[in-house]
Amino acid sequence: MASKPLSLLLLTLTPCLFFFLNSNAQTAPAPSPSGPLNLTAILDKNGQFTTFIRFLTETQVANQITNQLNSSTEGMTVFAPTDNAFQILKAGTLNGLTEQEKVQLVLYHVLPKYYSLENLQTVSNPVRTQATGQDGGAFGLNFTGEGNQVNVSSGVVVTPINNALRQQFPLAVYQVDKVLLPEELFGAKPPASAPAPEKTPAGTPKTKDTKAAEPSPADNSTGGSGKTSVGMGLVVGLGLICMVTLS
């Protein structure tokens, strides 16, 4: 008989307990949307990229990358040269660059697609970068893989990709220990062609520089002595004739 009141008590308390648990249950908060990716912040956090950050900022490429990351479905890949990479450049290498060429140099370190290190080992070369020439043609990079090592070549320099600062879609950022110098800006210039020879207009007579040979003084002296001998002969002959006649 004692079990019956207990059963009734449980039946009475169960709905109350269920209501209490539901009213106090707290659902897990939804993850807040992540803010826009900031390339310069990623580089600044890792240190030793002060010079590259300055180039990104001065050329406005940093803002361009941020805008593209927010609108692109392909993602992006950035190769970040260290401060030491800029320091080991030959003195004056970058001094003669125009503002447009500085933009091209920075964009040459950016690929308009996300690539993991594994992707770069098997990618088809050359890989198009964000840098383009005046004719609209894209500057390219070449990648080779050997084991776990990936090398990148610009045609002017070759350097290994040493460290992944970020490797998560939509942005991959890799450290490189050399500035990637595009061949279009820093390659050997072709030798200047020799000027074409001047053409003589048709019908124009050719002039001769050679002057007619003039008689030499020796020739003149020879002719003069000959004339003198003839004159003397005539005088002697006339003298003989006169002597014969008088006699």
UniProtKB/TrEMBL annotation:
<keyword id="KW-0732">Signal</keyword>
<dbReference type="GO" id="GO:0005886">
    <property type="term" value="C:plasma membrane"/>
</dbReference>
<dbReference type="InterPro" id="IPR036378">
    <property type="entry name" value="FAS1_dom_sf"/>
</dbReference>
<feature type="signal peptide">
    <location>
        <begin position="1"/>
        <end position="25"/>
    </location>
</feature>
<keyword id="KW-0472">Membrane</keyword>
<keyword id="KW-0336">GPI-anchor</keyword>
<dbReference type="InterPro" id="IPR045003">
    <property type="entry name" value="FLA_A"/>
</dbReference>
<dbReference type="Pfam" id="PF02469">
    <property type="entry name" value="Fasciclin"/>
</dbReference>
<dbReference type="InterPro" id="IPR000782">
    <property type="entry name" value="FAS1_domain"/>
</dbReference>
<keyword id="KW-0654">Proteoglycan</keyword>
<protein>
    <recommendedName>
        <fullName>FAS1 domain-containing protein</fullName>
    </recommendedName>
</protein>
<keyword id="KW-0449">Lipoprotein</keyword>
<feature type="domain" description="FAS1">
    <location>
        <begin position="36"/>
        <end position="180"/>
    </location>
</feature>
<comment type="similarity">
    <text>Belongs to the fasciclin-like AGP family.</text>
</comment>
<feature type="compositionally biased region" description="Low complexity">
    <location>
        <begin position="188"/>
        <end position="202"/>
    </location>
</feature>
<comment type="function">
    <text>May be a cell surface adhesion protein.</text>
</comment>
<keyword id="KW-1003">Cell membrane</keyword>
<keyword id="KW-0325">Glycoprotein</keyword>
<feature type="region of interest" description="Disordered">
    <location>
        <begin position="188"/>
        <end position="227"/>
    </location>
</feature>
<dbReference type="GO" id="GO:0009834">
    <property type="term" value="P:plant-type secondary cell wall biogenesis"/>
</dbReference>
<dbReference type="GO" id="GO:0098552">
    <property type="term" value="C:side of membrane"/>
</dbReference>
